[in-house]
Amino acid sequence: MYKLSILFVAVLLLTGPVQAQNTIFLSHGKIEYERRVNVFARMDNQDDQWAEFRKKLSNHFKTSYFDLVFGGDRSLYQPGRESEDRELFTFFQAPAQDNVVYTDLDKAETISQKDVFETKFLIRDSLRQIKWKITDETRNIAGFICRRANAIIMDSIYVVAFYTDEILTNGGPESFTGLPGMILGVSLPHQHISWFATKVEATPITESQLEPPVKGKKTDNAALRQTVQPRMKDWGKEGRQYMQDIML
User: Fold this and answer.
1) Number of domains making up the chain
2) Of 36, 78, 135, 229, which has the highest C-beta tally within 10 A?
3) Top-confidence range, 50-64, 173-187, 222-236
4) Are 244 and 191 in contact (CB under 8 A)?
């Protein structure tokens, strides 16, 4: 009995620290996101008499990759590796393909670089305030157990997000923030767009890797909308969809 007691204490002493070490809370690192667009579904949502013809010249899905580096209360989201997808035909450059988004959570502001039509804009604005509703549903993304949260942004866009509290920076792809941890997955079901992390690297991040973009015509979100919206007044559903993509 004495030997059994000693063995039990030894097991407790050995297993306690090991279990604690299994959970690693990251304060800096790099995340790769796969951005996926259902091209055919988006065509079906548009007033486009050429939709069926365009489908024959397009891929069903468009995949692109973005990297998010983060450290403390700052993050930088920008285009990553080139996708292996090959577009059969490009009608025009869709928005958000080359977005760069710098987020400073401590200052509650973002600085974004976006190409809209033929102009590069540099947009400085406050963080988008998102009223999230956290649920009990969980999902494993890139090796992290993530909890689901739902929200409505821009008055009508339904958002499903999955976040992990094992990454301490409360950020995410594009302008999605405001949850108690890092957002590793976002889906906009009605816009047929999603961002999901494919890998997370616990790697040191330097100050130079977290520099905000500096090039572009300076503006804010409200002024950007006023600048772009008149050019799409006759675009119908496609114009509304395009504007939503720009403002994400």
Assistant:
1) 1
2) 36
3) 173-187
4) yes
